[in-house]
Amino acid sequence: MKFPILLCALALGLISCRTAPMAAVAEVAPLGSPTIVIVGDSTVCNWPLNDNLHREGWGMHIRDYFKDNLEVLNLAASGRSTKTFITEGRWAAALERVPGVVLIQFGHNDSHAPTNPEATNAATDFRTYLRQYIDETRAEGAIPVLITPMCRRTATDNLQPYADAMKAVAAEKKVALIDLHASSAKLYAQLGPEGVKALEAKLANGDYDSTHFNAAGAKAMAKLVMDELPAAVPQLKPYLK
After folding, report:
1. Segment of 3-12, 168-177, 213-222 carrying the highest mean pLDDT
2. 33: nearest Cα among 105, 104, 103, 97
3. pLDDT above 70 covers what percent of the chain?
4. In the structure, how many helices (H) and strands (E) does the chain have?
5. Domain count, the chain
6. CATH number at residue 145
7. In sequence order, what are the beta bridge partners of 71?
8. Considering Cα of 9, then 11, then 13, then 15, what sign does the dihedral take?
9. Confidence (pTM)
10. Which of 37, 84, 118, 135 sits most deeply, having the most CB atoms within 10 A of its CB?
11. Other Cβ atoms within 10 Å of 152 Cβ, number
12. How high does pLDDT run on average in the chain?
């Protein structure tokens, strides 16, 4: 190719004198508010230190993973479902705290008998309520994260339909999801029956509670959540210890 022709080709953009361009790196916008709000049930909530059953929720231990420039508000409440957390005004109060990220875990109380006021159907109203949490979180400029309910430590686990419903809604709404149901089941299998007992909150009558945790179990669940949270919400990475 003659030199003048080469110059014309360069000017027209027909060829390039550069090597292949580097792949573009997507920029992640910072959080609108350096605050995580956690909503959920008794497996998540803050339990009093004098609780005679020694129960703790995993939401009590998320704070340990972050620097002091990020606030973690655990507003989960024992006995609540996707429905009753809203109808009691707890969800509206949570949004008033100006969250940057909202962690949402329900299912244990939703799965109660249909005659119970807190119960929802995994195929219908449970999904409707999850969409409400997502839409109203986004309306506040915050990032919703769905967290599937951890397995009950029993021979049969009736939470799978609720975990599956969460995954379906997350895909539909393009929302980050942490599959705690799957990761907790994997952990229980690795620990075996005796190891799992060490994570259980011992009841006053000597039986073992197959849903709640003591400090060791709550910290184990918090770690499973945090194993996935930074990838689910990259905006949180600068705040990690």
Report:
1. 168-177
2. 97
3. 87
4. 7, 7
5. 1
6. 3.40.50.1110
7. 35
8. positive
9. 0.86
10. 37
11. 20
12. 88
